[in-house]
Known about the structure:
Oligomer: single chain
Number of strands: 0
Radius of gyration: 16 Å
Order of helices and strands: HHHHHHHHHH
Largest sheet: none
Structural class: mainly alpha
Shape: globular
Amino acid sequence: MPPMTTPQELLLLWALIGYLLGSIPFGVILTKIMGLGDLRSIGSGNIGATNVLRTGNKSAVAGTLLLDGAKGAVAVLLARAFAGEDAAQVAALTSFLGHCYPVWLRFKGGKGVATFLGIMLALIWPVGLLCCATWIAGVALTRISSFGALLAASFSTIWMFLTAHTDAFVLGVLLTLLVFWRHRENIWRLKAGTEPRIGEKR
């Protein structure tokens, strides 16, 4: 972690801002605007881009992926610009929590993959690019979205070490654990060999 030099009151403020940004449910908003129905009643009921894919609308998928990533990145960049690196990491963590547990949806949110990647790109862009490449490689090899997500999260701290950005290591570990926790049902299905591949119906 970087030195905690920002006053506690400001850290709490940026924690709140990060959470509120992260809790914007872009998947739900876009599918409603596009007349695709309530995303929470489609497929897995998840609010992320993978479930939006089940609507068959590629524009909605791309929009959800980009906006879910952008909200995490914006939280980091704003906190860094107006407070410092310690506030940026606090906002990164709370924006991820906001996506996973949004107050607007009774704390039933997504699994945070796009937000995780957006956070990494804004926090340490070389690590973010490597995480994106790892996610793409995992999905390309298996056609399983959750496998790509777990692979990217698992390698995030390794990429931090290899690129000498260990000041974000604690945050990286916390985010990785949260990604795994949010994917716990997927992990069981991966072990059982029943996790659906992209394009398959649940």
